[in-house]
Specification:
This protein has 196 residues and is an alpha+beta fold. It has 2 domains: 96 residues, no CATH class; 73 residues, no CATH class. The protein has 6 helices and 8 strands; from the N terminus they run βααβαββββαβααβ. The longest helix is centred in the last third of the chain and has 22 residues. The termini are far apart.
Length: 196
């Protein structure tokens, strides 16, 4: 949708009569029409409502023909909330043609297998082993004493990425897990902390 600031009826008149348009303001509209875009008002009103001071039609909505089937209705409206000399061009479209529901994402998540860590099966000994192996890799990668102070964002991001990689590797080695089934969907959060 756009306020093109050109008289659309003059544009269509000149195109119909094969008259050259002198103003460069018509360039975008001519391009849209040449690429078969559809002026939606023309689909619903044989004589479209004038949108500027009831003198000209300078506001329009153009759709590509591929999505023309999604258009439900088009109309113009005097919307008193805004102080304007234009009428508002409104186009209703089928939302489902452009926005997918969350149920598709849920179904995809249910169908893909996921690794589910079983933190509740960790013991004091396995946590100690996890800590020891994490420390060993941090020391081996020389991340515990950086040679230069971390002052730049790039250095900080690099350190963060290295630590993340180490934690993922140790987590995969030390923490028990299971693969979810295709129908697995866990509703209950596992407790990470045991209290006595």
């Amino acid at each position: 949708m756009r306020d093109f600031n050109v008289n659309l009826e003059k544009l269509y008149h000149n195109i119909y009569h094969n008259t050259k348009l002198l103003s460069s303001k018509f360039g975008l509209l001519k391009r849209l029409i040449n690429q078969s875009y559809i002026d939606v008002q023309l689909l619903f009103e044989p004589s479209p409502t004038l949108t500027f001071n009831n003198l000209f039609r300078i506001d329009a909505i153009f759709f590509h023909p591929i999505i023309q089937h999604s258009i439900i209705h088009n109309f113009t409206d005097n919307y008193s909330l805004y102080n304007t000399d234009h009428q508002i061009v409104v186009c209703a479209i089928f939302k489902s043609d452009f926005i997918t529901s969350h149920s598709n994402a849920v179904q995809k998540r249910k169908q893909s297998k996921r690794k589910i860590y079983q933190f509740d099966r960790m013991t004091d000994n396995t946590w100690a082993d996890y800590t020891l192996k994490t420390d060993e890799l941090i020391i081996k990668a020389n991340l515990h004493h950086p040679s230069d102070p971390i002052t730049m964002q790039l250095a900080l991001n690099s350190l963060n990425d290295s630590l993340e990689q180490i934690l993922r590797m140790i987590t995969n080695k030390c923490i028990p897990y299971k693969w979810s089934s295709n129908t697995y969907f866990e509703h209950k959060l596992k407790s990470l902390v045991s209290t006595y």
